[in-house]
Amino acid sequence: GWGEAESRHFEECHRPLPAQRSLSGRLRELWHQVIANEFRLFGPLVLLTPLVVVLTMPRRGSVDPQRRARLPEALLAALLAVQVLCWLGTTHLYARFAVVLLIPLALLGGRGMGALRGRSAVLVTSALVLSGAGFNLARFLRLYTGHFYPNDVRLPLEGGSELFTSGQAAGFEHLALINRELPPDMHILMLGDAKAFYFQRPVDYCVVFNRNPFVETVRSSRSPQEIVDWLRRQGYTHVLVNWSEIARLRRSAYGFPPEIQPQLFTDLIPAGLRHVKTFEVEELHRPYADLYEVLR
């Protein structure tokens, strides 16, 4: 499932997009992905820490008897600068790769807070820190209640994987049918989805970078009947198509084969495919996947 074309695709997908490869494009992504991230993964308050450190650094020629050594701040600032440069120059500019910036930022913030002088400076900075902590706590509580109280009923937190394998977690409702109701000897072909470890039935899948035998079969077949016959020869009893994941991949640089469309499976039904069920996120009433049975 891997060759020169797949290697080129993998390499291209793990570079910034063409519009992001210039210096201005990379700096623009630093703003959007880290400083002003739309999901508030970091937030504008990350700018506060370097500012506090600069404002509390002793001025040249200061005779303050409690003057701090500058070496720790200089080393942390250098570390932060190297990390920013590495993120800008060696990653494909995703926010999650910048999480290491929090380490020197936290240490710089601690050094800056410890060096504050004057009641007003301490009060203002403490208020900013507390407001940031309150903001994070409020967002955390929203995420927590949304994940574990989806219908105002607490999901069991003990044995977290059970939430997924039993289909209780949002977006995994299909596993309640597949793992609990369908025969244990069923064999599923997954399209789009690659989270195979939640399935307690035999499954086959391809990650987005590999050659996909099903897609190659669709491209080379002259009729829907040939595609269904191929599914039978491979021993598949069901096909699960995760449209939500396919749409996410198509929005990203990874992409997804254009042949996989709802119309394809509509055309396969007369040839021997049966639609079993459409799954949706219950609280959102938003369909995300379809399960089909391969008739014998």
Give a written overview of the molecule:
Helices cover 49% and strands 10% of the residues. With 296 residues, the chain is an alpha/beta fold. Strands 2-1-3-5-4 form a five-stranded mixed sheet. A hairpin with a 4-residue loop joins β4 (273-281) and β5. The radius of gyration is 26 Å and the shape is elongated.
- Strand arrangement across the biggest beta sheet: 2-1-3-5-4
Count of distinct strands: 5
Number of helices: 12
Helix share, percent: 40-55%
What are the low-pLDDT stretches, counting only 5+ consecutive residues below 50? none
Class inferred from helices and paired strands? alpha/beta
Strand content: 5-15%
Please outline the major beta sheet.
5 strands, mixed
Radius of gyration: 26 Å
Distance between the termini: 28 Å
Shape: elongated
Average predicted confidence as pLDDT: 86
> Could you state the order of secondary-structure elements as H and E?
HHHHHHHHEEHHEHHEE
List the main descriptive attributes of the protein structure presented here.
single chain; 296 residues; alpha/beta; 5-stranded mixed beta sheet; 12 helices; 5 strands
Write the layout of secondary structure elements.
Layout: H1 4-13, H2 23-35, H3 48-56, H4 71-90, H5 102-114, H6 119-148, H7 161-165, H8 174-180, E1 188-191, E2 203-204, H9 213-220, H10 224-233, E3 238-242, H11 243-251, H12 262-272, E4 273-281, E5 286-294
Parallel strand pairs: 1-2, 1-3
Antiparallel strand pairs: 3-5, 4-5
